[in-house]
Amino acid sequence: MEKHTYGVVGLGKMGLNLALQAAEKGYQIIGYDKYLPAQPETENLTLVNSLQELINKLDRPRKVFIYIPAGAAIDVVIGELTPLLEEGDIIIDGGNSYWGDSIRRAKELKADKGIHLIDCGTSGGVSGARNGACFMIGGDKEAVSQIEGLLKDLSVPNGYTHTGASGSGHFVKLVHNGIEFGMLQAIGEGMDLLAHYREELNISEILHTWNHGSVVRSWLIELMKKLYDEKQGFNVPSYVEDTGEVNWLVTDAMHMEVSIPVIAQSVMQLIASRDSENIAPKAIAMMRNGFGGHPFGTDEGIRYERHFGKVGGYEQPDSK
To answer: Where in the numbering of this chain does the 6-phosphogluconate dehydrogenase C-terminal domain appear (predicted)?
Structure first.
């Protein structure tokens, strides 16, 4: 019989919402964070003030989820947990850790203390964590079998898969995030085209229509319409922030000799959004001026040639 007591380290947006969902479904959850949130109103979620207290409240074999940002902090938390755990206990890394780090950590934990590490790629955002997520799991089948009941209960129907050995779950999630970047970029470019059409288009209505039977219907299109309506247009800063995981995927692709031009370019465009004083186009303009005498800034004659003097040019409305 699967034990129904789990620890969760990291009670941010993802960790807390998953903990609340699990508690509401009858699991006993022990939660810890350096900055504890206000006590949620649920009888099955207990917040503690130390990792030692968390470990003391778990049944053996202990199962501890980590939901903190990827990177060195994961090694720190694992280092703090390891002396408190015993052979057969399980650590589940639910963040966006690099898959190579997950393989390393799993090998070290297994060799040093016989502790299992499961890499748990988690998708669906905050709403998914609260109402039904999507999980991609890498790790030993023996360990995975002890937590998959919980993960299946926390996922949407068919939103769970054991992808293979250690590292595979985080690799699959990384590829997922790369695809996400490409889709975001394509939708963003589509919005730019709609906004620059010769007549004003009802973008909200178009997005609503696209999500009813079109090939591009999706949650992302749904979110695009929702935010477009809330902000009354594209009234947000152009600066796009991210945590950098997809950069790993671009590097991996080069090592694997796999061509991913769309994903790679989406990363470049994201980076470009952060530079309000972008030097690259200024440098290009300087060189074009040097070799061809091309003007700096706008030039109506060249603009006319670009639109009307080339194959595929289209007639501009009189108002422009």
So the answer is: 169-320
